[in-house]
What does this fold into?
Amino acid sequence: MNLTLEGTRQALRACRLAVLLLATFGLLLSASSARAGCGDPFKASNIPRLPSMGQQDDNGQDQPTIVGLWHVHYTASDGSPFLESFKTWHSDGTEFENAFLPPTSGNLCFGVWKQISARTVKLHHIGLLFNPDGTIHGSFTFDETDTVSADNKTYQGHFDFKVYDPNVMQVAEVKGTTAGTRITVD
It folds into this structure.
C-alpha cells in the first residue's frame, strides 16, 4: 500500500508540474501582445509633458496657480495664531492638508476647491475630530477664499472654521486670515 500511495503522490507532483509549465507557457505567449496601460515607453509621443507651475495665458506665459505644495499659517481674527499646516492643492480640484497637530487628534483632512477668478480660489474643507480613545468627537468645516500672488510664491485669504458635535450641531466658529508660502524643489 505504501508503494501505491507513493506512486500516487509522484503522479500528482508530475501532474502539478505539467499544469504549471503549461500555464507559464500560455502566459508567455499571451504577454507578447500585451501593453501596459500607460503606453509604449519607446514612442516619443507617449512621454508625458510636465505641467508648468502656472496656467498659461494667450501669449504662452505662465500665470499664477494655487496648484502645488504650500506651508500655511492661519491667524484668528483677534490676531492670535490659529493653525499651521502643509497643504497640497491638486489640479483636479481636490486638496489635502496635514495640520501641525498630534495624529491622534485627526490632523489629516481633505477638501474640494474651484477657481473663482484669475488668481482666486474657493475651498470647502472637511475633517473629523477624535476623542483620546479614538472615537469620533465631531466634525468641522474650513471654508477659505485665497488669492495667489502675481509672483506665484505666496497666497493670502480668509477662512471660516466651524466645529460640529456628533449630532451635526454647530458648537464653535473661528474666522481669520490665511498666508501660504509655496514649497518648491529648488
About this structure: The first helix runs from residue 2 to 31. Confidence is low (pLDDT under 50) at residues 1-54. The two ends are 76 Å apart (CA to CA). Strands lie at 55-56, 62-63, 68-76, 81-89, 94-99, 108-115, 120-130, 136-148, 154-164, 170-183.
